[in-house]
């Protein structure tokens, strides 16, 4: 069903994303043209950041998790697949992931920063 869509070929061109993953992403997001910006897609998936501040206090930012949990799970797995495939197929997404990983002050890099 997803093969005639142009998004399908674009997703398959990313190293680490195969047919099943591309179909799942398209199935969960639907028509990507209905989103006017990347921020709307982030909110739909639930990876937009929650900000909390009061006076001089600024809390840590966390993702809202209000969106589609299935799309969020697929996207996180895609990021890990892309990072794993970067040894054989370099790509700018994996380069960005590694850059964020080096900048991270915690023990693990959060995939939502890449997504």
From TrEMBL:
GO biological process: DNA transposition
Occurrences of domain Transposase IS116/IS110/IS902 C-terminal (ranges): 9-87
Pfam families in alphabetical order: Transposase_20
Top-level taxon of origin: Bacteria
Protein name: IS110 family transposase
GO function terms (MF aspect): DNA binding; transposase activity
